[in-house]
Design a protein that fits this description.
This protein is mainly alpha-helical. The chain has helices at 10-17, 20-49, 55-85, 88-106, 112-140, 146-170, 173-187, 198-204, 216-219, 221-232, 235-245, 248-254, 265-289, 293-312, 318-331, 335-344, 351-364, 366-381, 389-412. The two termini are 33 Å apart.
């Protein structure tokens, strides 16, 4: 029986896409992003509730965020390997269970030590959901339509940050953690409706195939180059979210925005609203135009334009500032296509490993990106504390230009994967 193509009637395409793997993947990523961004939104009230104040709010906040990122780097490798060895569905629900339990426990913490343990464990769990979802959806849908499926996963998922921002404003910090954990546990009820990927099941019966060998990505020069490029094309996304959006209050001051930006919460919500629109647009356009590379290139150039406008506009209103933040999110809304490209570049025996580690290494790249931003301010301004507006804006411009330039270079060296058959194995 022939598989339906993307040219199928809208009704049949909709029925094809609204299957359990896509629905659960989208809802799982929604909760994943909600929980991922939640700590940044409740950092101050949660640490104040534990008795901290002043510079401790920043120092312990950075420490907890770094522990979460370390957990995500470790979890990306662990869940990626398990996805290729035990199955995509096992990893998908294992990650949801782990981060849900960790976030519920996070609502009960009474010391910084227990808080640190919860953020690390939550980070490990959060690392596995997106890669497992994208791998599963890419393998269960026909090659002519899979970008639509991964677009639904990413678009619904990133909207979780918008909801997280709203929830953080309405309830206490511990209740916000309880809601995230409860939503994740509720998803586990859908587990029985999700079937394992046929490609993975077939691979289980093939002898002599090395599955989930993370180190195989580094033993072949061409394979490593392809893997590295998959990671590098995502760098601008976390420069935008981790620097320009997270530090929105500082940039608003440097830009002389007419009005006060007290916290980054509203900026995060605006950016992720733009990211939601961008994810839908990039995924839909990549399917309609039959190219992943052209769409990623277009969105990278849009990101360049948005960053330029954000860093150059002076003395505007708060509304205009938030509009530019929305544009930043729109520009990095190629995240859906970016993760899909990583999954499509490699064979079935390494696909989950790549699809899970690539986005988490990009998230982890925020550490050197943030460090470079800090060094840039010192280089421009000497030892000035606090740094001048020129140092803040100039350093951001330099780091952003480097990230976007590297991403464009990396994209140029990748093969086009739209419509590529994924039913093959990587050689040892």
């Amino acid at each position: 029986m022939a598989r339906p193509s993307s040219a199928a009637a809208p009704g049949s395409l909709l029925r094809l896409l609204l299957q359990p793997a896509v629905i659960v993947g989208a809802l799982g990523y929604f909760v994943d992003i909600y929980d991922l961004i939640l700590f940044s939104l409740v950092r101050i009230p949660s640490l104040k509730a534990l008795g901290f104040a002043g510079t401790q709010l920043t120092d312990y906040g950075v420490r907890l965020l770094n522990l979460q990122m370390v957990g995500m780097l470790a979890g990306g490798i662990v869940f990626g390997v398990l996805g290729d060895r035990l199955g995509r569905v096992t990893v998908l629900f294992g990650s949801i269970l782990l981060y849900s339990v960790a976030n519920i426990a996070n609502g009960f913490v009474h010391s910084i030590g227990s808080y640190e343990i919860c953020r690390f464990i939550a980070g490990v769990g959060l690392a596995g959901e997106l890669g497992g979802s994208i791998t599963l959806v890419s393998e269960v849908l026909p090659k002519e339509s899979r970008a639509y499926g991964t677009t639904i996963v990413a678009t619904v998922g990133v909207f979780g940050a918008v909801v997280g921002g709203l929830v953080a404003d309405l309830v206490s910090w511990n209740v916000a953690f309880f809601i995230g954990g409860g939503l994740g546990l509720a998803l586990l009820a859908l587990r029985l409706g999700v079937a394992e990927s046929g490609m993975f099941r077939q691979m289980q019966h093939v002898s002599g195939v090395s599955r989930g060998n993370f180190f195989a990505l580094f033993t072949n020069r061409a394979r490593f180059g392809k893997y590295a490029r998959c990671i590098l094309i995502g760098l601008p996304s976390w420069f935008v979210i981790g620097v320009l959006v997270t530090l929105a209050p500082e940039f608003a001051t440097a830009l002389g925005v007419q009005g006060e930006i007290k916290t980054a919460a509203h900026a995060v919500a605006c950016a992720y609203l733009g990211l939601t629109v961008g994810d839908f647009a990039s995924g839909w356009l990549s399917q309609r135009l039959g190219s992943r590379k052209k769409i990623v290139c277009g969105f990278l150039l849009l990101t360049l334009a948005a960053c330029t406008a954000y860093l150059l506009v002076r003395g505007e209103s708060v509304a205009v500032f938030y509009g530019l933040v929305f544009l930043l999110g729109l520009g990095v809304g190629y995240w859906a296509v970016f993760v899909t490209v990583g999954a499509e570049q490699f064979g079935t025996n390494l696909r989950a490993t790549v699809a899970t580690t690539v986005p988490n290494f990009v998230r982890g790249a925020l550490v050197p990106i943030s460090a470079a931003f800090g060094w840039g301010k010192l280089w421009i301004d000497g030892r000035s504390d606090p740094p001048s507006a020129a140092a803040t804006l100039g350093s951001a411009a330099l780091v952003g230009a480097v990230c976007i330039g590297i991403a464009l270079w990396a994209l140029h060296g990748l093969e086009e994967t739209h419509g590529k058959s994924l039913d093959y194995f990587e050689a040892p």
